[in-house]
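Read as amino acids, tokens; as here:

___
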Amino acid sequence: MWAKRPVIELKGYRRLIEIERQIMRSPVGWTLVLIGMGGAVYGVLSLREGLTMFPPRLLIGYAIFLATYLGLLAYLYGYRFRRLKCPDCEQLMQAGIADLDESGPWRWLRAVELNGRFYLRPYDEDDRRPWVRLMKLVRACPRCRTFVDCSHISHETCTAEELTRLEERPMAGA
């Protein structure tokens, strides 16, 4: 069971972009990416023999790609972000979730904005899930008012009050 993370309001917090860049550009991360891409290329090149033959190299390439992808996730979220210290006070930064800002690569999700927060509607009429509030995983130091964006979208089920406001809003273009 996932632990419920506290919600952090990031107004007044300073984003530590340089630390984010150091984490994403680490040699271990790039090594895992290159090995994974090598496995993907190896698998794709095995398709010259045809898919009906189902060459074992296709399975090996896929296994390498999948293993390095899982290794990269474990490295970033299980090691690097978990052990992140604030550069000002040297304390471990606390994990939390925060609302998404207006810019970002997540915009393709076609989220609905309401009072500065972003919500995602159910997929279609057969989807029984309620609306969810889109959030992101962050590591923050409340003492120094700094945070690092972990580039991981999270979501919380909307409260009854939020659901009421979402259902009452005009359906412009949706």
